[in-house]
């Protein structure tokens, strides 16, 4: 998968224009708050996901403008393709190869990328929400149907939580809770099965990458952990188990005002030498774990989709020592890479591609 052109209009602080990247390495350098991350974010949005910075859609539109427009030309599935993304009235819509869609769900699986930002270095040491987000984001690109399943689960979860808050004031609503329990259990069972299968697939390439980083001195492993600790074998067993679990947790849920059990509380357990990396890993080990997971994600995307994803590295090189930097770049091989950094001296280290300076939202080609 290769990006040949990105154009932008009224997107954050980026000046109206276009970006013609190199098919391999692209280094975008410049001082902070000039627009480097905005450029990578614009590319990432074509995966169909939300901003990797957690920004609301309304924040993506330039100040004083009503709408933003992005267009990308890329080579995928052995042909040239294009996609247009419009952000207006706090909503995104997309067009792919001239066909207009009301939302962005159709983008999922069309353009694949792996993003690595400083926030991801907290993937190991922070709480489980970031690790669930990592799994969900990877699965959405690999299996577009998963994105719809995740949306359905979250919608049912929101509705059940709203009902839990209403029941103390309207006791007659209690009898309707079982309906939402069934819906949540059905979708939750599928969610857990999909995540578990993906973790099994991710485990071996991640272990191999970590072994390369550590020089085979340390052992790396991952495991999907449900909040209940149970491990039924089939989707139907999971559905029944979750349904029963929601029933047993009803009193606690009503007291808390939200759903306390389910895949929205699960975690990806990461271990180094049989010890939890979150609690016992050094900072270097934790960063090696993140590298292993991200590089394994890219490898798995390429293996299962048949195409290498685009790699987005947002100012992460300064956070890694030289050994991990070299290992990361070596592992990326022939993939198209977009790398941001602050100073031209750092940018000069990465040869064999395009170098671009970003200043006040404007890109300039540098030799």
What's the quick description here?
By secondary structure, this protein is α/β, with parallel strands linked by helices. The protein has helices at residues 36-44, 128-142, 144-166, 177-214, 235-248, 250-256, 277-280, 283-305, 322-332, 344-348; strands spanning 2-9, 17-19, 25-29, 67-76, 79-88, 91-96, 99-101, 113-116, 220-225, 267-272, 275-276, 310-314, 337-341, 354-359, 362-366.
Structural commentary:
By secondary structure, this protein is an alpha/beta fold. The chain is 41% helix and 23% strand. It is built from 10 helices and 15 strands. Helix 2 packs across helix 3 (144-166), helix 4 crosses helix 5 (235-248) and helix 4 (177-214) packs across helix 8 (283-305). The longest helix is centred in the middle third of the chain and has 38 residues, at 177-214. The mean pLDDT is 91.
Termini separation: 25 Å
Which sequence of strands runs across the widest sheet? 2-1-4-5-6-7
Which parts are unreliable, with pLDDT below 50 for 5 consecutive residues or more?
none
User: What is the N-to-C order of secondary-structure elements (H for helix, E for strand)?
Assistant: EEEHEEEEEHHHEHHEEHHEHEHEE
Helix share, percent: 40-55%
Q: For the residues shown, what is the average pLDDT? A: 91
Query: How would you sum up the major sheet?
Result: 6 strands, antiparallel
Count the DSSP helices: 10
Task: Tell me the total number of β-strands.
Answer: 15
The shape is globular
The computed structural class is alpha/beta
The fraction of residues assigned to DSSP E strands is: 15-25%
Rg, Å, rounded: 22 Å
């Amino acid at each position: 998968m290769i990006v040949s052109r990105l154009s932008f209009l009224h997107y954050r602080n980026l000046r109206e224009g276009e970006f013609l990247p190199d098919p391999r390495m692209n280094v975008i350098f410049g001082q902070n708050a000039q627009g480097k991350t905005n450029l990578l974010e614009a590319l990432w949005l074509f995966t169909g996901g939300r901003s990797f910075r957690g920004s609301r859609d309304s924040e993506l539109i330039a100040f004083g403008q009503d709408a933003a427009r992005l267009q990308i030309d890329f080579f995928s599935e052995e042909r040239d393709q294009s996609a247009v993304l419009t952000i207006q009235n706090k909503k995104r819509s997309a067009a792919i190869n001239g066909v207009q869609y009301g939302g962005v769900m159709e983008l999922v699986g069309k353009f694949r990328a792996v993003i690595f930002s400083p926030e991801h270095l907290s993937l190991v040491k922070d709480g489980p929400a970031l690790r669930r987000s990592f799994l969900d984001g990877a699965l959405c690109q690999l299996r577009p149907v998963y994105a719809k399943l995740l949306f359905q689960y979250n919608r049912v979860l929101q509705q059940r939580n709203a009902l839990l808050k209403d029941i103390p004031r309207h006791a007659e609503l209690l009898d309707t809770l079982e309906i939402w329990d069934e819906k949540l259990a059905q979708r939750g069972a599928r969610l857990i099965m999909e995540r578990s299968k993906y973790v099994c697939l991710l485990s071996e390439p991640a272990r191999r990458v970590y072994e390369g980083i550590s020089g085979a001195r340390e052992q790396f492993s991952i495991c999907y952990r449900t909040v209940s600790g149970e491990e039924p074998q089939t989707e139907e067993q999971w559905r029944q188990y979750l349904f029963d679990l929601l029933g047993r947790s009803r009193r606690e849920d009503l007291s808390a005002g939200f759903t306390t059990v389910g895949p929205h509380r699960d975690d990806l357990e990461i271990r180094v030498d049989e010890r939890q990396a979150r609690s016992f890993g050094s900072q270097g080990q934790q960063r090696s774990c993140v590298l292993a997971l991200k590089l394994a994600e890219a490898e798995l995307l390429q293996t299962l989709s048949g195409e290498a994803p685009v790699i987005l590295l947002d100012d992460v090189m300064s956070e890694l020592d030289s050994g991990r930097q070299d290992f990361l770049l070596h592992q990326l091989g022939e993939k198209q890479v977009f790398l941001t950094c602050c100073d031209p001296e750092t940018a000069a280290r990465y040869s064999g591609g395009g170098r671009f300076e970003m200043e006040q939202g404007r890109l300039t080609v540098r030799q």
